Amino acid sequence: MKVRKCLVLLATIAMLATPLSALAQEPAEAGEVTEETVETETVIDEGMPDEELPPSEGETEDGSTEDGDVDEDGSVEDVDVDEDGSAEDGDVDEDGSAEDGDVNEDGSAEDGDVNEDGSAEDGDVDEDGSAEDGDVNEDDSAEDGSVTDIISSELGGTEIEGIIETEEIAETFLFNNVVSEDEPLVSEDGVTGFVSRMYTVALGRQAEKKGLADWVNRLRTGSADGSVVAQGFITSEEFVNRKLSDSDYVDVLYHTFFDRDADDGGRKTWMDKLEGGMSREYVLRGFVNSQEFQNLCDAYGIKRGTMQLGNKRDQNEGITMFVHRLYVQALGRKGEPEGMEDWTGRILDNIMSPEAVAKDFIFSEEFVKKGLDDTEYVKVLYRTFMGREYDQAGLDDWVKKIAGGMSRERVLIGFSRSVEFANLLSEYGLSLGPISVTDFGAVPNDEGDDTDAFNDAFEQEGVDSIYVPAGTYVIDARKGIKPKSNKSLVMDSEAVLDVVGNSQGTYNVIDIRNVQNVSISGGQIRGERDKHTGSGGESGMGIGIYDGVNIRISNVSISGNWGDGIYLGTMDDKDDIYGCDNIRIENCKIFNNRRSNISIVDADNVTIDGCTISDAKGTAPQCGINIEPNRDSSGRIPEDAICKHIRITNTTINVLGKDDYYGQYFCFMTAYYPNDKSMHTADDMIIDSCTFNGDCGNYSGTNVTISNTVIRGTFYDYQGTNLKNVNYENIWRG
Ligand SMILES: [Ca+2]
Are 186 and 213 in contact (CB under 8 A)? Predict the structure, then answer.
């Protein structure tokens, strides 16, 4: 066949301005890169221009490489190597390290949804339309390493010359093999068709012979793979200058990589990603790393390779789309690339929580400059944090609160801590972290009082877990920290509640009163006994629990309080409130409190497990654990005040004195009533696997069992305690 004839055919094709794939009798389905495709490409190949054609617009006539990374002619030298050899274009690992094949850098869903069988029925990259698919190399094992190996060696410098050599080879190839009138420019195969399609479909113009030959040669020799070609064309300046719409961009990717029209479902999936803030490179990667493109490459006998992206915004769809959403909802615009990169990186690298980022958007200079009034401000919060328009009652309520003095920041927390925002976050694979007490104005390590900040956090609607970062916080026990029901205080192990000195005989540093489902964990409560300015009273408690239900205190260090470390009691013996129920004190260190380390006054179902309790001293009875309900006006203990179901396990108790008189310096004691052994303080009590370094006494507890325990002192037993495997120094049965 004569070349001239073919040119006529090509010109006809060009005039029709029809996507080349449309010239196929039917759009090739994914994976079926067989006869139709080859036939199409045969037509193109025959039609390749010879050297008499004028250079295409933008073609570098001298073939020079001075532009460094993006060649206008799309030829070999550019594309994958930046001018400085760096990798900021995101297409290669800077170090050429071995992440290849790890397409999902965020660890998100792995493959499985990309046409696993390579079949083409759904025609779509995504079987389920979900976000993760399409971008994963299912069989990364096979291609693993190929791209990075090639590119890293090029980046290394020596192969830069190699590229030039490739050009020379290509020219040689051209002169030696192409010039003859009776032979086609290049052999008629799928590789040539693939590269030709890159020019005609991606760049919208005919290939110039040199660029075409370069690419074909590189693909054939294995010095480039499909992913490299893809990035070379789709990220080239010439391509970018086409300024395609998102929709056209996706269509071009379908035609260049899959050689077919987009199916509706597939186009929608990719459009959703683009409209949700994902980059075009991210979408490109989905095509390059897909099974369908793999199948096409297999059919052509070339390596597909694996495309990688280094930008933060390309690592995790959920994070990127969440940040994009903040731009749109809060600022009313799309994010600029630098901003998208910065914010996504902060969430990705756990520098900031999604909630904190959202808050920064609302308090950004750009947002504040909008000058929204309170009503408009709240409306934006509805859209940003709840993903919906306001309801009138809710809007009115919040506006009223602002008018009443609530800060905009507090209002925002009401939204950012809502179930609706938590649900919205979960759609992006994100979650609410615990809110910090510093968000409410607490400042560690300064002299300023932090008590109000703790209480503001507990009062805040929507906040169910309050985090206390490491540092020292000043607490005024006269006010006390007052946890609310269903809330947790989570303290860093290096968080210290430093109680400021006062003169009161009664206070609670943490005052848990008539609430349920409260957890206090971590941190240290350092009481004020050494700074105390009064002399009366003995009820300055570290943690006072009054009529609390389902309360857990764990991993807290509690020391130096004017009264007890922990006190379990009731607000009022006379009314219908029956004290504490289901209290767990676990893995705590409780020491150096003035009266007792733990007083159990009115509580059922108490578990003390894994604690170390030491050295109560200052005012009677100076016990580790003292069980002693309050008596009524007749001097009796009411039946409902008896503490039932007490469990003390795996706990060590140390005391400072020994046997001064009954009930002083005891490791544990049920209170002693010398004249009345029928007075009962506890019922159903189990002590197991404990070490008591000092005296102990069960004067008034019924149904008490002690097992597997060492008592390094005297055990005073007035109630016939059931002892199993208990070692004691002495026993005194009264
Ligand atoms: Ca402070």
Answer: yes
